[in-house]
Write a structure and sequence with these properties.
Length: about 800
């Protein structure tokens, strides 16, 4: 996969694409020739260029593989009218086809031999033109422009457009993430010629035996490169991925047995060894019966430490394997209470587990819990025993914790560690030479995670490379100061700019003017509203086209604005009498079929995304005024809509408004939200008591002895509450300086939870992780609750906080 990126960088650096951000059409993929080996889908050229220039790995990759080494005919298209969104298809023989929108004339190009001149002919004709002595071909079909290095490739593309698309390719194309700058689709079966044209003869990279097709989306930050997507196995089960077809991955435990000083671990997991063994027979063409010795094995792991290896077999029942080993072992010795035995047969793992285990000498073994560890050197087993007993294992080492945010809970294939040992994953399957050929120094020595999760014939794929040396956490930036014309009236919020994936700020002043501000501090627009915004602003995608709107309520109105600040017809409306609560927006199935819930005293309104009343929802009038924002909480596959009422009632309803969880008790609500914690509806009352209600209605209470003005929040696995200057995060108490604190806010960022509070008396904003550890560079200056969010453009975090009455601060940081 890293090799494919080499081609990407060289290609993009060679081009000067126009910045015509025409919307990507579904027509483009119809023209991809059937003999394509690689397809680059450029979704946002400016975004991609930024990613390359800002990323440590991509920026330096072109130095390792110069442009002169890449397909010479790419240079023919340097002047082609490439739009911001386009496809580039490479055949296995090295020819290239550009597929894009009809481009405009380039007013700065006065030459007579430019590809723009190629598109003046009538539609359907293929025009040949010479650029610097080499032929190039072009045509137009509907609104699609085709430019190719061979005329036959144009013909093949036009013919393919009339055919049904390859179903596998169509699925890969459909699952690619268009919000990222680049998607790569490539055939693993047709790489030989293309590979040699790019990399010459110095590499023996061979992907044929690994799988059939792969689709990867590019995401990057300055010190990290990430490829995520899916891989497809051949239906004949003759490729390496086919070993895990129709298996279920289990949690990977190998890192918990490896010494912390290990260089890397490699883990293969499967819930059914017999299914894996059947797949293995197809892969190796073995006709022998399955060996029941390994039937209880659910994970095969490899530990790498310098020039030594250990193999881990994790089992759910060890009796059969233990009996087998008892017959081939000699007298052992004890090390820290664990016996280590020498084996008289040393190649049985190769015979039974190839290709997962190859060229391995199982000279010694020991047992830790239900795991069998084998090595050719007893010293590595001794280190593993000591590490396991002392809690000094690889899963607690910097190499692992650095990448832990990227590691799935269960993977069919998992590699974590030094990139130099990534070769071992490829050994025997992808590379004929398992030494240093084809390794680039920029990857060597850095940390990698590579994981594939089996889902039938498809494999979810995630490959991440992160720089080991240098800056691993980007420092907090100096804040940008943004001044409004009048005082703030709401906590600033961060929203996404769907056009360039950057972050933006929305905030309102005391004159009821709403501002949209760029992450550079520029006020993009301001809009006069009829009153103060109630609660938070929601971003929605009403038309399901990636273009986002802002939805909220004021005292009298439900308002939906497009990104230019214009009201969206259909949903925006007024409510006679006013007194509206904050808007709630539910997306039950995450399919953008929104439900907009507006509450007005005892009255409850629910609208769909077209603004029509949802007649199936029957809870239209409560017995007491609704307070706060209605909430949508999920347990298992059941939805729960929660209302707090002024008389102390708690209503937990179904989607249709029927009672789902009966609650007879009444509470003195504290103003803090109800949240789901350990599958229980959890909230605190004004007396500082924590209440939890189970799905069957069972009620438990815990007296936390909190003050009336305490704060509480949480999630399924986290509980956070604040009392005066004491902050409690998942059982850890943090004593802060004496001051006046905002209630704690919980943020989910990159699959991690962060907690923030601000001391408004001393103007200090604090940020902690979910273990109560302070984030470095904090506290920062702040005078209110913060907004914290990632930007999809560069994966950095934006933090917005009030500075004084009419000024806010915007920080950028990396976590």
């Amino acid at each position: 996969m890293i090799r494919v990126l080499s081609l990407l960088v060289c290609f993009v650096l060679a081009f000067g694409c126009a910045t015509d951000y025409s919307q990507k059409t579904t027509e483009h993929h119809r023209y991809i020739p059937p003999n394509s080996s690689l397809v680059l889908m450029i979704n946002d050229l400016g975004y991609l260029r930024d990613s390359i220039s800002n990323n440590f790995f991509l920026r330096n990759l072109n130095d390792k593989i110069p442009l002169a080494r890449v397909l010479p005919k790419i240079e023919l298209l340097q002047s082609a009218p490439l739009s911001a969104k386009c496809l580039l298809a490479f055949t296995h023989s090295g020819e290239v086809l550009y597929i894009g929108e009809t481009a405009k004339e380039n007013p700065n190009d006065s030459t007579a031999t430019t590809p723009e001149k190629l598109f003046t002919r009538k539609e359907g004709s293929i025009l040949k033109h010479s650029l610097e002595g080499t032929d190039v071909y072009a045509t137009r079909s509907n609104s699609v422009v085709l430019v190719a290095s061979e005329k036959a490739l144009i013909s093949a593309a036009l013919l393919q457009a009339e055919q049904k698309p390859n179903p596998i390719f169509k699925k890969l194309y459909a699952t690619s993430n268009e919000r990222l700058p680049l998607n790569l689709l490539f055939s693993l079966h047709e790489q030989d010629t293309l590979r040699s044209k790019i990399f010459g003869s110095e590499t023996t990279l061979d992907l044929k035996s690994f799988g059939k097709w792969m689709s990867l989306d590019l995401a990057s930050s300055p010190y990290e490169l990430r490829l995520e997507g899916i891989a497809v196995s051949d239906t004949s089960v003759t490729d390496f991925l086919g070993l895990f077809k129709n298996t279920t991955p289990l949690p990977n435990t190998t890192a918990g047995f490896a010494p912390s000083s290990s260089d890397a671990i490699l883990s293969y997991s499967f819930a059914d060894f017999e299914r894996f063994s059947t797949n293995r027979q197809h892969y190796t063409s073995l006709q022998s019966t399955q060996d029941p010795i390994f039937n209880a094995v659910e994970e095969v792991g490899v530990i790498f430490k310098k020039n030594e290896k250990a193999v881990v077999l994790n089992t759910y029942g060890s009796e059969t394997l233990s009996d087998f080993l008892g017959n081939i072992r000699q007298n052992g010795y004890e090390y820290q209470g664990n016996p280590i035995f020498k084996l008289t047969q040393t190649d049985f793992l190769n015979m039974s587990l190839t290709p997962l285990v190859t060229d391995f000498n199982a000279g010694y073994y020991t047992i830790l819990d239900n795991a069998f560890l084998f090595s050719s050197h007893k010293e590595l087993l001794e280190e593993s025993i000591s590490a396991f007993k002392n809690g000094n294992t690889f899963d607690r080492a910097p190499a692992y914790t650095l990448m832990s945010e990227r590691i799935a809970s269960a993977a069919s294939i998992l590699f974590v560690g030094n990139a130099s040992y990534m070769q071992q994953l490829l050994d025997g399957q992808l590379m004929k030479d398992a030494h240093t050929k084809g390794q680039h120094s920029m990857f060597k020595g850095n940390f990698v995670t590579a994981q594939l999760v089996a889902e039938g014939d498809f494999f979810l794929t995630d490959i991440t490379v992160r720089q080991k040396d240098g800056t691993l956490k980007e420092p907090l930036s100096e804040p940008i100061t943004i001044a409004l014309e009048d005082e703030f009236s709401m906590t600033p919020q961060l929203v996404l700019n769907h056009t360039d994936k950057s972050g933006e700020i929305v905030v309102q002043d005391n004159l009821n003017r709403l501002y949209l501000i760029s992450e550079k501090g520029e006020i993009l627009w301001k809009k006069q509203l009829d009153g103060q915004i109630q609660g938070r602003i929601h971003q929605v995608d009403l038309l399901k086209n990636g273009r986002l709107q802002l939805a909220f309520t004021t005292d009298r109105q439900l308002i939906v604005l497009d990104r230019n600040g214009k009201s969206v017809d259909g949903l925006s409306r007024s409510f006679e009498g006013g007194n509206l609560n904050p808007l709630a927006v539910f997306d039950y199935e995450n399919n953008k079929e929104y439900r907009f819930v507006v509450t007005q005293g005892e009255r409850i309104f629910m609208f769909d995304r077209a603004g029509k009343d949802v007649s199936g929802f029957t809870y239209r009038k409560a017995k007491s005024p609704v307070i706060g924002t209605p909430q949508h909480l999920v347990i298992g596959n059941k939805d729960h809509i929660v209302f707090q009422l002024a008389d102390g009632s708690l209503k937990i309803l179904s989607r249709t408004g029927k009672v789902r969880v009966p609650v007879s008790k009444k509470f003195e609500f504290s103003g803090n939200p109800v949240f789901m914690h350990k599958d229980r509806f959890t909230f605190s009352d004004a007396k500082g008591v924590l209440h939890q209600i189970a799905p069957n209605g069972e009620h438990t209470r815990t007296d936390l002895s909190l003050n009336t003005d305490h704060g509480s929040t949480g999630s399924q696995n986290s509980l956070v509450y604040q009392n005066d200057n004491e902050l409690h995060i998942n059982g850890k108490t943090i004593t802060l300086d004496l001051g006046i604190y905002t209630v704690p806010k919980l943020f989910s960022i990159k699959d991690e939870l962060y907690v923030s509070v601000t001391d408004i008396q001393n103007q200090n904003t604090y940020l902690f992780d979910n273990q109560g550890r302070a984030i470095s560079d904090f506290p920062v200056y702040g005078n209110g609750s913060i907004a914290l969010s990632t930007t999809k453009r560069d994966s950095k975090l934006l933090l917005a906080v009030k500075k004084d009455s009419n000024t806010l601060l915007l920080y950028r940081l990396g976590l």
